[in-house]
Amino acid sequence: MSELLRIEGLSVTYRTEQGPVPAVRDVDLTVARGEVVGVAGESGCGKSTLASTVLRLQPASATVSGRVLFDDADVLTMRWGDLRALRWAGASIIFQGALHSLNAVRRVGQQIAEPIQLHEPGVGRSEVKRRVGELLEQVGLPAARAEAYPHQLSGGQRQRVMIAMALACRPALVVADEPTTALDVMVQAQVLDVLSGLVKDLGVGMLLISHDLSVLAAMSDRIAVMYGGRVIEQGPADQVFTDPLHPYSAALSASFPRVGDPGARYAPAGLAGDPPDPRHLLSGCSFEPRCPRAVKDCASAEPPLETKRPSRQAACIRVPA
Amino acid sequence: MSADTPDITLEARDLAVEFGSRSGDTATALDGVDLRVRSGEILALVGESGSGKTTLARALTGLERPTRGEVLLDGTPLGYRARDLRAFRRRVQMILQDPAGALNPRHTVYDSVAEGLRLHGLSRHDPDGRSEERQVADALASAGLRPPERLFLRYPHELSGGQRQRVLIAGALALRPGMLIADEPVSSLDASIRGEILALLLKLRAELGLGVLVVTHDLGLAWNIADRTAVMYLGRIVEAGPTEEVLANPQHPYTKALLSVVPEIERLEPVVLAGEVPDPTRIPSGCRFHPRCPALADGSAAAVADACRTIPLEVLSSGEMHHCACHLVAAQARTLA
Questions:
Q1: Is A30 on the interface with B (CB under 8 A)?
Q2: Entry pTM
Q3: Closest among B9, B59, B6, B5 to B30, alpha carbons compared
Q4: Angle between helices B132-142 and B191-208 (to 10 degrees)
Q5: Secondary structure percentages of chain A, helix, strand, coil, to 5
Q6: What is the DSSP secondary structure assignment for residue A189, as one 8-state letter?
Q7: What are the pLDDT digits (tens) for B132-191?
Q8: Which residues of B touch A212 (CB under 8 A)?
Q9: In terms of Cα–Cα distance, which of A52, A46, A37 is closest to A87?
């Protein structure tokens, strides 16, 4: 698999009236063609900021350092014209909440056609129509649904339209930010099937962001777990989910009970305390106040992300190398 | 708070709720449901959007007036005059989803919890003679917010998501009900916080003998805490029984399909149903699940296919044994007998 996206030392800090708020801190990540990399974490961990920064969509109040290399070109510093060409055609993004991201007064077919017409002005009208129909079929909707308005579609169908739009210009990379949140489990399964099909059939690389570690485990090749703006564990998806190294990943994994596991009956697993406040980061490990395995040294310095097992990294001094 | 809540039984009997739609069609959100839940037990009502689970929960708290059938508390039908409802709600309290939206942003924690006491005239007339402040503090402590006095003057925006959900639970507990009805109590919370709230529900059942009806789309939640699980589809309960049996040995093709798509590493061969829960203005003939039924589609239900398409299934009884509404399962049981 050839490398498509390389994120190096990425940090994103928001300027606010209360002072700087670091949202993403020193993140390294790669995605290859045909690979799904999952980013897991809870609200405020920085995963959505990471997703939008990959396409340079972060708000103006953000200060960014580090590099985001797409096919060796740095997204963060490239000229505006190159960036425009990259968005949609090189890399596209699927946001959560399809209801609010689609234009309510335009037919969905027109909305899918728009990026094609913008990026490939030479393509004729009938060809655009054919491609829109093909895209809809690719995501499991009949081509005739191009005539529908968003309100005529269900939540799952709207999310498929969003995916069809993201694919309109045949991007090599798709960033999907919580693509199935708020969908029912059966509809979620349908949408996840569509996304896996894209990776398998079209060989796109995918950066999949979700709070749901079980969805990521089922979909991804590798998973990075974020906490307090940093990646605190990274490795093959099944290993991170079933045999997590970092105590936070372990707690997160345990909070998705396996139906049928006798150990989970009458034993919901939770974690006391609240997520870290990025405005008041600790000098030691951000997870230390909630960590069941914390020792005195954990509070003194932030542990680096280190290789602990072949192809697995964790940022925790309690995990032996 | 002491463990003196009297035992109660809440029951739905042939309960139906219909809504008129703008197009003039009638949407049957709930189409005949028998269900019983008692103090000291946790019952999970699971299903997708449009299954009628929230409508059933609302009808069981008197928020929705049934078009047919009745709600019974200890065998007495629920009346819908304001006085009847007030007396009823002292014993059956609802906890809404989305704690951020359910709390008044301008009310302190103290006022949010005391509101119910004041509405019910309990602020000055607690059966045990406690002051309002004592009652609020006890309720907050029962919901795991300790020390309670430190939270009295806080506003919702100063609390974390988990704390807000605990404040909502405290508001319900203040009235010392026998039963809580919780609609997706943890769906808006982060995964690591979820377990703490579920553990609280288990603790309330153990310490106060509360009954809990929890409405959820999350089968893992049902597996975590529920004694019994009822699966809903398009306004009916299609399978119910002890959680170990319904979720570990499902009988109904719909329950099987739902379980097969719970994302996990080593999952069953996923049965992804096409389409979505149909429009409740057009409930299919025969078995309401038949247009999407994988057993009918793959031919394994060929022997009963006519029945599936034409003969409606009976409403499942409110009994506690494992049972389901499916022509195929019934035919297989007959063959074995």
A1: no
A2: 0.90
A3: B59
A4: 120
A5: 40, 25, 40
A6: H
A7: 999 999 999 999 998 999 999 999 999 888 899 999 999 999 999 999 999 999 988 888
A8: 191, 263
A9: A52
